Every structure is written in structure tokens, then in C-alpha cells.
Amino acid sequence: MLINLVPEFLSVLAAGDPFAAYRRYYAEHQPVLEAYWRNYIIDPESPQADEILRRTLSAQRRDLYDLLEHVDVERIAADALSRCEEQFAIDRPADLYLMIGVGGANAGELVVGGRGIGFVCLEHFTGRPNAETYGLGLSPELLPLWIGHEMAHTVRYTSRDSRSELARLIFEARGNYDYWTTGGQATLLELLVNEGLAVAGAREIAPGFETREYLGYGSHQYRRMRALEAFLRQHLAVDLDRTGLGYRLRYLAGGTSPESRTLAGKTIPERAGYYLGLRLVEPLVEDLGIAAALRASAADCLAADQRQRDARSA
Which of the residues 47, 57, 160, 163 has an alpha carbon 20 to 30 A from that of 123? Predict the structure, then answer.
């Protein structure tokens, strides 16, 4: 289901007391917005939350209003969601939220009460960077790509047929996903495969972009990742079965320190795991198609990758 929260957020901005209006808006959609805050921003009950919210509500948003005036983002999102439902064979209730965020996340995934949720924050897709909203200046043409990425996650997390380790962890957490807790319990292999499959899913839903755009890389980082692939594969092997939030931060998070990304004496690029994950899952996606691959175990992905490499070296 497509749920558009943007009109309600704009009403919050236009209210006489936007801070109080946001609190009412938050209460109306609390299960989803609380999960969004806790996973991607900060604990909404912390002292810093009020300052983040005040800064959000006072930001100038001319770029956002221009986007909404000239681009039918709801139609773009609806079309992309329809393609996800068909190509991913979505078999459990899942929602896509169009919203305005309060921080740096341009898109993300959640599971709340067993229901998969993808969201995109439109302030990042106006085509113009905006320091006051942290807007990244991404083109609105990229919206289907990001929607495909996030909805692919919801399939892996909630499908009846998913053999994902993350699906098991979410089930054990009573149908709720937590970036920090769940991410700290999953193996590094599962985390890499999870993001690699989401990148592959985005490529199926929104074909025609450069590979680096599906990965969220600039040209320089993409070239560097290709050059580092053999080194990273060699040194990753001993860590693939290990768990711990540090692995997620090292390979999959942005904004981390160079020290936290040091591997065998080299500082690896931020979010290197997206490239590595894509390369790991490509053979299985080629063999089975994206719908089946999204539900496969991480071990199946690793085995398909190994078979392909063995065939090339034979």
C-alpha cells in the first residue's frame, strides 16, 4: 500500500505552532514514525530530539515545493511499487511511505508488527542540495531505484518463503526490525547479501542507470571499489560468519571514521559492503531470478558465487 504523508507534514509546517502540530502528526502515525526515529535518527524521547525537530521545522524548503509543483511523485511511487509487487512476487502486506524526514536518511526499511515498510524522504530527491534539510540533491528520477531497494528488503524480511537469517531474527523479535540490535545479531555474510540483493532488486525495478548509482557511489569510489575487490574478498573470508554491530558499521554505514574502516592496513571506502554484496549475489540472481534470490539463504548466495568463480578458474 502506498501511504503519502507529505500533505500532512506540509500542514504541520503551515500551522501556527508547528512544533505542537508535529507532535500531533507523530501521535497519529506513532508506530511507524517512532520506528523511523529510533532506527535512523535518534531516540525520540532524548533531550536532543527537540532541537533536531525545531531545526527541521524551521528549514527553508523552496526546493521541495518546486519538486511537488512540477513532478508527480505519487504517481512515480505508485508505478514503482506496482513493479515491485509483480517482480518481487510480494506475498505479505507491505507499505511504501512517501514522507519528509528529520535527518540525513534519504530512504530506509522497517518492520513494525510483522509488516514490512519502505520509506523515501522527498527532501533528498529535489535535484538541489539543501544544507538546512540535509537534502542530498538527488534527482527525482532516482526515486524508483530507491523504492525498489527498500521494498526488496521488506520481501527478504517478511516473505513466508524467506530463508534469510534476518527474517528469523525479526520473527524472534515479535515482528520488529531494529537497525542496531538486529544488525548486531546477523552475520556479516547475511548483512552483505541483504544489501547486495536490495541493490540487485533496484536494478530490476529501475533499469538503465549506471551501476555506481544503484550503489550510491560517486565515480571515484566505484573505480576504487573495483580495484579493491580482490583484496577485500581475500580478507573478508575469515569474518563472514562473525556477528557484531562493528561489522555493519565498517562495511555498510556512512559517516564512519577511517579507523573503523581499516582492514589489513588499508582504509576501505565507506559502504564498501554494498559493492561486495552485489558481487556476491549476482550469480544467484542470474540463476534464479530476483524474486527467488530475495528469499534465498546467504549460504546459497555464497555457494553460487563460489561455483561461478570455480568455473572461471577451471
Answer: 47
